[in-house]
Amino acid sequence: MDGKDVTITFYDSGGQEKFRAIVRSYYRKSRGAVLVYDITDRKSFLDLDYWVSEMQAHCEFSLSEMPIMVLGNKSDHGHLRTVPTAEAEVWCERHGFAFLETSALTGKNTSDAFKLFIQLIQKMVVKPLEDQEEDSSDSFLTRETEGLPLKSVSKKGACGR
Ligand SMILES: Nc1nc2c(ncn2[C@@H]2O[C@H](COP(=O)(O)OP(=O)(O)OP(=O)(O)O)[C@@H](O)[C@H]2O)c(=O)[nH]1
Ligand SMILES: [Mg+2]
């Protein structure tokens, strides 16, 4: 990004209850999130409220500082749709989240989704960290070899919005 290498690590969290504790441990240091629902499964869309509340409860960073992208997947199954595009758009706009409909089956919008997410990471995470680093003689931006590439050790611990 802007001539610098940035590694983004994605953790795929299973929706199942038995993974809940592990998933919560992922949230803590996450700098962004991709929430995926199924456009043919209304419950998976309504469950987004639950996933947002989980992130608010367990993320170290405020969700308003994090790039969050919602993907309505299975767009190839339009004939079985139970979540209108406009409804999801309104919900995402209300929360300040990016939104796209995708199909993992056909590949529609999948690379655009990654591109969009990377742009949001650049704007909302990498750039602010670089600006902070420039402003501070006592640099607190460190590079990690395992896991996340950029680590802010700022004192902020606020969760939620
Ligand atoms: N038609 C269609 N089927 C899809 C698409 N994406 C995934 N599937 C199918 O949907 C089912 C569930 O996909 P998964 O990737 O296991 O879903 P998941 O959300 O990761 O599920 P958990 O990890 O259990 O929470 C599988 O049978 C996939 O083949 C898509 O874009 N279109
Ligand atoms: Mg899965």
UniProtKB/TrEMBL annotation:
PROSITE patterns in alphabetical order: RAB, RAS
Pfam families registered for this protein in UniProt: Ras
CDD domains xrefs: Rab
InterPro entries (alphabetical): P-loop_NTPase, Rab_GTPases_membrane_traffic, Small_GTP-bd, Small_GTPase
Family note: Belongs to the small GTPase superfamily. Rab family.
UniProt protein name: Small GTPase like protein
Organism: Aduncisulcus paluster
